[in-house]
Amino acid sequence: MDLKTWSAESSSEILLCGGFTQVPGPPDEYVLTLTTSGLYVQRLKGTPGVPEVVRHSDCLGSCAFRGPPADPLGYYFIVTTYPPVGRRRRELCLTFRVGGSPDPEANRQTAETWARRITQLATPDVPTHGGAEYSLLPRPCQLLIFLNPHGGHGAALSLFKEHVLPMLSKAEIGFSLIVTERPNHARELAREKNLDRFDALVVMSGDGLMYEVVNGLMDRPDWSVAIKKPLGILPAGSGNALAASVNHYSGHKQVMNPDLLINCTFYLCKGLVSPMDLVSIITASGKHIFSFLSVAWGFVSDVDIESEKYRMLGSIRFTIGTLVRLTALRTYKGRVSYLPAEEEGTSASTTIPGLLDPNSSHSERLSFGTQARQNSIYNFCNSNNMGTMEGCGGHQRGGDIPTLEDSLLAPLDQSVPKHWTVVKEEKFVLVLAVQQSHLGADLFSAPMVTGLNDRLIHLFYIPAGIPRSSLLKLFLAMEDGTHMTHNCPHLVHVPVKAFRIEPFGSKDIITVDGEVIECEPLQGQVHSGLGRLVNGGRKS
């Protein structure tokens, strides 16, 4: 079948068609057909077969340029693509010479027309999911990139130069790079820097640097505007949970660096921005923290922090930490309460194999008399009055600073509202509240999470009494997310809108997004779409 017949039988509209020479190498002639579904490339030499297709979704764009002095008539255009090869994306650049006219100006116009049209079609469609507000980064765009040179194996800067910089250049994306110098440096900059000239803030590190940036933005007097600045994640740490989650939501299979970094850089270049849920966390001492990933108390937080000594080993440090902690398995005393998602009219399945019914003997509904449900409203500090990072946590201010209402939470010095559930057990092996699908690049902890804006917190807990062997099996299965099908009678999962954790001691480790906070009572509620993140979209 010839190209015209094949194209006519397809459902795609033909936009451009022409014959060009592919370079470098032997000067083979090709027919290119640009349609609404892709760029079809067919070699003319020999017996024509079905054309190869370059999908618009795999294309970063195209640019036209003048030929060398030895070719005064020719003009060229290059198509930059990153098609998936197995689990990985690999660069494929196709360069074509336009020389069909004796007039170099006509050749220039043809090359520029093709380059412009290919670039337009490479722009992602803006999806609609449940009324969520999606958008695209502008073109041209300017990024502010925070890079932690000590993240993971300490190779972030070399990874940036090797993988990220070439892709940004080919996508014609401008950037300013800040190499962080100390803990909380990114938080200080996100809090104090004028961000008006940047279209997005990008973190190249692990999840800890994103935690700094998110909370730095929320420290600002103009937090309600600043937190809507699109964020981007480029994995170069030992955890990389947010990057792995974004990769999963887009439909890609689980990969490690550098493949995960290439995928996330590709998403950044495509520029699709989605709303991202954040969890507002209030502590007993008055600190106000914002989380995009997780709150952990018990086994998971112990492994995360105690494995810091193995940080130079990369993500394998978590495996080592798990084995070490299993040899000295602890229990943690405290109280856990939550507002089930169905209380807010959200469907929350409790029929997943291996999950306990939250209404079973593991939990009980408690009533607190006629106490009215109270709202907690928290003001944000003015950065001009902050001597230290801790100065912003939970301090109320007057003036015109906007407030965020945690309407589902009662004050921590009062009982939870009567329609909440209080877990009957008071000894736990772990308690984990997560918003994303992954807790690490190879830790698929919450396979039920489908996107950045699910409007849910997934609360997991394991009461005391689980055998070490069962806990080990769960964590080994968590690599591919199959732990949810193991019918483990000890694992409880509840989709919630809000939760409260009250440790009875003060020496346990509690982490928010992998960062240690003071061990004290805390509570949190989800705020749907409060942040925005550049990502690869959501698989259908």
| CATH topology label of the largest domain | Tumour Suppressor Smad4
Total helices: the number is: 11
Share of helix among residues?
Answer: 10-25%
Radius of gyration: 26 Å
Based on helices, strands and strand pairing, what is the structural class?
A: alpha+beta
Low-confidence stretches: 1-9, 345-399
CA(first)-CA(last) distance: 33 Å
Number of strands: 28
Task: Tell me which CATH architecture of the largest domain applies here.
Answer: Sandwich
Strand content: 25-35%
Shape by Cα distribution: elongated
Mean pLDDT: 85
| Number of domain units | 3
Pfam family, one: DAGK_cat
Subcellular location: Endomembrane system
Domain DAGKc: 138-285
GO molecular function: ATP binding; sphingosine kinase activity
Walk me through the structure.
By secondary structure, the chain is of the alpha+beta class. It folds into 3 domains: 3-122, Pleckstrin-homology domain (PH domain)/Phosphotyrosine-binding domain (PTB) (PH-domain like, Roll), CATH 2.30.29; 135-277, Probable inorganic polyphosphate/atp-NAD kinase, domain 1 (Rossmann fold), CATH 3.40.50; 280-525, Tumour Suppressor Smad4 (Sandwich). The chain is 22% helix and 31% strand. It is built from 11 helices and 28 strands. It has helices at residues 3-9, 104-122, 156-170, 185-192, 207-219, 223-226, 241-249, 259-270, 299-306, 316-327, 468-477; strands at residues 14-23, 29-35, 38-43, 52-55, 59-66, 75-81, 84-85, 88-89, 92-98, 135-136, 142-147, 174-179, 200-205, 231-235, 272-283, 288-291, 294-298, 332-340, 363-365, 376-378, 404-406, 421-423, 427-434, 457-463, 492-503, 510-512, 515-517, 522-534. It is elongated.
